[in-house]
Amino acid sequence: MKKNNTKNQEQDNNSNKPAISKERIQKVLARSGLGSRRQIEKSIKMAQIYINGKLVELGQTVVEGDIINWKNRKWVIEGKALDFKIIMYNKPLGQICTRKDEKGRPTVFDDLPELKGQRWINIGRLDINTTGLLLFSTDGNFANHMMHPSTMIDREYACRVFGDVDQIKLDNLRNGVELEDGKAKFNDIQAAGAGESNQWFHVVLLEGKNREVRRLWESQDLKVNRLKRVRYGGVFLPKKLRAGQFQELSQGEINILMQDVKYKSKDAELIARFLK
């Protein structure tokens, strides 16, 4: 009788373990925040990545226990029940969106909470002179999904604009203007107050091109002298979250965000854990 109970308990324990299949190496490494799939595929073509001591071929898969050697470092492939995190961060003026800077400038990663066995992956970027909402995730797949143009996520910015803003210019910005990298427009523009020589507007974009908000206003001979992102999709920057502070999204908020962007997560996934 005791033997049967033990056997049943082992079966229950095994049934609770997440079922993980093999996956392509570039997908697993990208999910683990080690680079984009394109960067990893390039390293594979350049014969820089090894699995269990053998050179990787493009499209090769990995399973639990495989050892990856790349850039004189080593990782082990592990199965992990999916439990990713998302945080919002209020970016201050003067920080850049890279992990390290050759010029020694402060980066957005300096103020983020430390992680064990994971790393924060930024969802989009803000330039050095733009403040406000940034999202970070521990799930590379989710981060890539959020940044993909097909997701069509709206981003809202508060802009202080210097110059004479008339209805013709606003209509141009709503209808679209030609920039050096193609046509662009604001999907919405709302006036938000005015001073002696400046006016505040809230604008909405469905893209994340480099300096797009500033370049759109500049196309109408107007200058943005303050720019702050206040919303990314369904996530709003709380007024109580001061510059340089972060806040973790609750599971309920994460679920709502995933529904908004039509992202379906798996129960489990393969990740690369750093060894040395």
Low-pLDDT stretches are 1-18
Work out the strand percent. 25-35%
Helix count equals 7
Total strand segments: 18
In round numbers, the mean pLDDT is 87
- The percent of residues in helical segments reads 10-25%
Task: Summarize the topology.
Blueprint: H1 2-16, E1 23-24, H2 25-31, H3 37-45, E2 50-51, E3 54-55, E4 61-62, E5 67-70, E6 73-81, E7 86-91, E8 121-123, E9 131-137, H4 140-147, E10 155-162, H5 167-175, E11 177-179, E12 182-184, E13 188-194, E14 198-205, H6 212-218, E15 223-232, E16 235-236, E17 246-248, H7 251-260, E18 268-274
Parallel strand pairs: 9-15
Antiparallel strand pairs: 1-4, 2-3, 2-5, 5-6, 6-18, 7-9, 7-17, 8-9, 10-14, 10-15, 11-12, 13-14, 15-16
Task: Describe the structure using short key phrases.
276 residues; alpha+beta; Structural Genomics Hypothetical 15.5 Kd Protein In mrcA-pckA Intergenic Region, Chain A; Pseudouridine synthase; 9-stranded mixed β-sheet; 5-stranded antiparallel β-sheet; 7 helices; 18 strands; 24% helix; disordered N terminus
